[in-house]
From TrEMBL:
GO terms for molecular function: isochorismate synthase activity. Gene3D superfamilies: Anthranilate synthase. Belongs to the isochorismate synthase family. Pfam families: Chorismate_bind (PF00425). The keyword Isomerase applies. It comes from the Bacteria. It catalyses: chorismate = isochorismate. It comes from Jeotgalibacillus soli. Keywords: Isomerase. This is isochorismate synthase. Its EC number is 5.4.4.2. The keyword Electron transport does not apply. It is an enzyme of class 5 (isomerase). One of its GO terms (biological process) is salicylic acid biosynthetic process.
Amino acid sequence: MVRIIQQSHGYAAFEHAFEKAYQFKRDVLFSMVIPIDPVDPLQFYEAGYQMFQGERSFWQDRDGELALIGVGNAQTFTSNPLNDRFTTIQQQWSQFLEHAVYFGVQKIGTGPIIMGGFSFDPRQEAELEWSNFSDGYFQLPSYMLTIDQYGAAFLTTNIICSEGDHAKTIWARIQANKELLFTRLQDHIKDANVVQTIEVNPERWKNTIGFVVKRLQKEEMEKVVLARKIKVEFDGKKRSDTVLERLRDDQPDSFIFSLEVLDSCFIGATPERLVKKENESILSTCLAGSIQRGNTTEEDNRLGQLLLHDEKNLHEHQLVVNMIKSSLTDLCEVVHVPSQPALMKIRDIQHLYTPVKGIASKGISILDYVRNLHPTPALGGTPTHLAMDVIREEEGMNRGFYAAPVGWLDAQGNGEFAVAIRSGLLHDHHAYLYAGCGVVADSDPESEYQETTIKFRPMLRAVGGTIK
Ligand SMILES: C=C(O[C@@H]1C=C(C(=O)O)C=C[C@H]1O)C(=O)O
Ligand SMILES: [Mg+2]
């Protein structure tokens, strides 16, 4: 288990943060990082259930380079409808960090990091199930576990020091919480059972695809991504712990994430990176065009080859490549895009995949990249503004955080965001699952329907729902 953290470790720096709070008459962040013995990320997440339910977050990247697990919420950062949400979050975050006092290890993936995401479309009217979320929502965890690419573990503790607070009392409470997080014996997870799985209006959705195909043939538009929803009902509240466990076991090649907000949890396993920034290095991904996996290696290879040469899918894919290339070119010194897509094979599906690399221009934060990239034609369409109007008019639901950027951001503007597909919302006694597909002028409604059915599988399996 964890090395017992010396009670006095960092206390002098902590007191210094209080002195600054008095001096500047404002809240001052104290952020402390210590190396700890390795601990299983899910065990840490579960340990936070009793004390911090509704304030937990989970992130594990698809390369096995970083896991971040946050429990407890030291501070929330939210957007407001009047200003650009990316700028608002960035400004609040930068202001909040002024005068911060740091103690201990300093490396990327530790220290003050906010975890959260954005909604797909702030202009869509919110549906009831998404009412806990604002269009930009981030949490600074009180306690954050980091596992780096070598398996080394670090614990970050973030405390807000306010004028008038009593340093010794707060310090004692923090130490006590930490002990609990690392020593609490788990109560057996009592999980809810599925009562029923409902596909929301599948026939109407197919008709909509047919209708949008006609519009694509007539209008100056090349692609629109349309999504649909499955609602799973349980006999109680579904715990995100068990869903995460299932996703982690089944989808090792995806980003696994969760974001609890009060009694809701947005959760998923997505293969799609939007953007990663580590110092000046930028990575992004074009992912669009899909085919099922085969039952044998031969069949699987044959399907892969079919996808690599299929005109409809190559077109769907190329539109994403064009947009991502031009968005990144605005913010990078150099951008490298391979000339041909490769295959990305994950458990249930294979995709056309073009990884993109770049060198960041000076002074640009990860959120600037997110602003420029979202929504890519992998989830919106081409041209973006027309496709977004069609989604608003035809989709008949609110995507919430589905298909939108989810990830983390540090004090230096480094971070990583994935596109939150293969995802769902746990709320009350329900899970709302989402999947979509790129509709182009030669799309066939029935095949698009089948494609989305495959894309639902990872989340259906993880929550225990079944469809015919
Ligand atoms: C929209 C989704 O996936 C997107 C659409 C794809 C397609 O239509 O081929 C492929 C990957 C994703 O960019 C989803 O999974 O919900
Ligand atoms: Mg497709």
